[in-house]
Amino acid sequence: MPTSALKPARSRTTGSLHYRLRSLLVRTLVYALLVLFAIIFLFPFYTMFVGSFMRNEQLFTFTPNIWPKDGFQLQNYRDLFAELPFGRNVLNSLILATGQTVGVLFFCSLAGFTFAKRRFPGRDALFLLMLSTMMLPYQSTLIPWFLLMVKLHWLNTFLPLWIPWFAPAFGIFLMRQFIAASVPDDLVEAAVMDGASLFGIYWRVILPVSTPALTVLGILNFMNAYNDFLYSLLVLSKTHMYTAPLALALFRGSQITAPRYTLMFAGSVLATLPLLVVFFLFQKRLMEGIMSGAIKG
Amino acid sequence: MQQAPLALPLRRDAAPAKSRGLLGELWRHRMEYLFISPFFVLFAIFGAYPLGWALILSFSQWRGFGPMQWVGLDNYRAMLKDIYIAKALLNTLIFTAILVPTGVLLALFFAVVLNIKDLRARGVFRTIYFLPYITSTVIVAIVFQQFLDDTYGWLNGFLRLLGLSPVPWLRGEGWAKLSIVMLAHWQGVGYNTLIMLGGLQGIEPEVYEAAKMDGASSWQTFWRITLPLMRPIMLFVSILGTIGVLNMFAQPYMLTKGGPGTDTLTLTLRLYNLGFGQTRYGDAAAFGFLISFLVIAVSFLQLRFLRSWRQ
Question: Residue A236 and residue A154: Cα distance in Å, rounded?
Fold first, then answer.
């Protein structure tokens, strides 16, 4: 890190040379530390990327290779596609995440609007009841949940990963808080005067102004669904229905077989790319959403 | 759960309802009930119904076929004697004791540094630190597996470079735990940092102004003002971390398969092995309740602590 890039320390009233030097030193140290940690956080991504172009004999050297010696060869990617319908697996992850997120956004905003802007008997009690279900840990229902999916003949379909997750209490809570705080009652009332139906108000008035909350909820849900492992592992057992994480887990090796890094690295790169694109599109809003405490848990 | 003021009623029913009774009231609001119904319907089918089923299962012995056999409290009794469960509990305790305090300190440190006002490129650092959080745990584990390989891994290569002896990161007892800890920190610290940053930015600037006026050094300001005000957020992050440890599954499943031996066996991994590896549904259902009890207990402690701090 070139120190010339750093702002000179702002002199205070004292402004002595000693103070400025000390301040500069602290600053340099802080930057050095930040850069060191940035390397720590980025390095595994880097090894995954370059590793995806290396064959076994390059991956398994006594001193690890930092650069693919034979250039960026695509053989690992070819091998991966020869062994698995990996394009389909990534697509499955995308279908799973998109389908679930569309449902979540619709049902959470609809219920959030109703809880925030309508008055009806039992509203507050129902809202509290809904919130209290958030305390129920998933481990308590994991086994029968799976047995239910068997009973419904939903194994090896996306239904178990879509329908049960369409109306999470947390999402409804998030949407209710946002709509209650940021949609003026006048706006809703004016629409009522115009004789709009309740759904019409939701669709034409509430949805357009709720985009900030919808974005945060949507991207977070998308990421979680795209990366889901446990529930996919339970209900998907056919290779062509596998999501990307499940497909990659196939190559992790066992007591008798060695892990196949060449295929895992190539697949990891392909599976990470779509999510990175989505993340960078909505990065600012997502991170601000987390900082503002909108997302807890 | 925070108690936010509920929204004002939309309209104060200009035309008073002609004493239509409760049923009429309900019917008049049928659209509202319809709009909030998806949650309740889905919860009834995929939450409450499995919950009741789990309760019955936990008193039965069932392998997925044939008739269920009622065994009373046997599953719960067996659970207390199950050495794997005891080991998983112990591991969870150790993981919590290591991961939570170090995680809070790391996140607080990053947040304080990234909160320095005229720091350049702090947004870039924030994003870089957050990136692992959005990456699939399966993929993170794959990269770490190679990174920590005994012979060919980067970390041991680095140790050799420094003249140190290599370490059995994934196959040595104790070391495997440390590897899981490193993985969890690497993946999660960026998220916690964001929560802490949010807390830091919520502190009124006037508080710092006043401290400056009184001639407090930045070190004093940190200890006397920042730290006490951040306590609720630090607690919140530590509770999130504890529940995260109770839920830990993909990390050991991918990286160590719970090994060596049972060194990294976690509660949820044991639940998975019990239920889906050995199809001992009854035992697994009972064990699921034990984990749930722990999660709920931790959440309640959080509420108690937060309340006593906010007064």
Answer: 9
Judging contacts by C-beta atoms under 8 Å, the chain A residues touching residue B31 are 197-199
Q: Which residues contact B228 (CB under 8 A, 6 or more apart)?
A: none
> Which pLDDT band, with edges at 50, 70 and 90, does A105 fall under?
very high
Q: Is residue A93 part of a domain?
A: yes
Whether A273 contacts chain B with CB within 8 A: no
Reading the block at residue A185, the tokens are 């009652």
Q: Which chain A residues contact residue B9 at CB under 8 A? A: 119
CB contact under 8 A, B254 and A172: no
Chain A CB contacts of B7 below 8 Å? 115-117, 176, 179-180, 185
Measure in Å the smallest separation between the Cα of B179 and chain A Cα atoms.
14
Please report which confidence band the pLDDT of residue B10 belongs to, taking 50, 70 and 90 as the band edges.
very low
Query: Are B146 and A283 an interchain contact pair (Cβ–Cβ within 8 Å)?
Result: no
d(CA A244, CA A161): 14
What is the distance in angstroms between the Cα of A64 and the nearest Cα belonging to chain B?
6
CB contact under 8 A, A40 and B142: no
Domains (ranges, CATH) in chain B? 31-75 (no CATH), 81-310 (1.10.3720.10)
Q: Is residue A29 part of a domain?
A: no
Give phi and psi for A167, each to the nearest 5.
-130, 65
pTM of the model: 0.88
Which residues on B lie below 8 Å from A176 (Cβ)? 7
What are the C-alpha distances in Å from A258 to residues A195, A250, B149, B210, B261?
68, 11, 12, 62, 18
Q: CB A143 to CB B284 under 8 A?
A: yes
- Check if B218 contacts A (Cβ < 8 Å): no
Nearest CA of chain B to the CA of A79: how many Å? 18
In this predicted model, what pLDDT tens digit does every residue of A263-274 receive, in sequence order?
999 999 999 999
pLDDT at B8: 44
Residue span of the structural domain in which A177 resides: 89-245+278-291
Instruction: Report pLDDT for A254.
Output: 76
**DSSP H or E stretch at residue B69:** strand B69-70
Per-residue pLDDT tens over the stretch B231-285? 888 988 988 899 999 999 999 999 998 989 999 999 999 999 999 999 999 999 9
Q: What's the pLDDT band for A93 if we cut at 50, 70, 90?
A: very high
Does residue A18 lie within any of the structural domains? no
Contacts of A279 in chain B (CB under 8 A): 131, 134
**ipTM score over 0.90, yes or no:** no
Task: Note the pLDDT tens digit of each residue in A204-229.
Answer: 999 999 999 999 999 999 999 999 99
Total domains present in chain A: 1
Residue type, A246: L
Q: How long a stretch of residues is chain B?
A: 311
> What's the whole-number average pLDDT of chain B?
88
**Which of B7, B110, B131 lies at the smallest CB-CB distance from A117?**
B7
Q: pLDDT band at B308, cuts 50/70/90?
A: confident
Find, among B47, B154, B3, the residue nearest to A168 by Cα.
B47
Q: Which two three-digit tokens encode residue B277? A: 């590896």
Is residue A100 a part of any domain in this protein? yes
pLDDT at A70: 81
Q: Domain containing A179 — which CATH number?
A: 1.10.3720.10
Q: Compute the average pLDDT of residues A163-168.
A: 97
Mutate one of A86, A124, A143 to test the B interface: name it (highest B CB count within 10 A).
A143
- Rounded to 5 degrees, what are φ and ψ at B60? -130, 170
